[in-house]
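Ticket #4471: structure export looks truncated?
Reporter: QA, pipeline team
Priority: medium

Steps to reproduce: submit the single chain below to the structure queue and open the exported record.
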Amino acid sequence: MWRIQSSVDFQKRLKKYRKSHPNESANCLRNLNAYLTALQEGLVPQQIQRGYVHSEPTGIKALDQAGPSKTRKYAMRLYVYPDESRKILYVLTLGNKASQPDDLRHCQEFVKQTLADDSSGW
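Actual output as written to the record:
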């Protein structure tokens, strides 16, 4: 059974984005729930291919703001790392196009640390 573990950074950014972009934030959370459901149903991360899932380096997945709406959306990415050995879905951070390079760098550092050391510091 997969469990979810979110970072303090994600929680802070979610609070900010819920105020400034509530629809996109809700869509990201809806997509996170759908992704977790797919994992719970037994799919491995490589098998989960949805329009809102984007593969990033080192096994990181970016879940975007795609969802039910015909209006143009603010581009957002929710970065997660599915740790198959521990069955933990780490919710790392939430960002936009401008923060994407820094967000990915931060996420990659987390994954390298997690893979190198059993204690992730969370």
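Status: closed, not a bug. The export was complete when the record was re-opened. Leaving a note from the reviewer for reference: The chain has one domain: 3-116.
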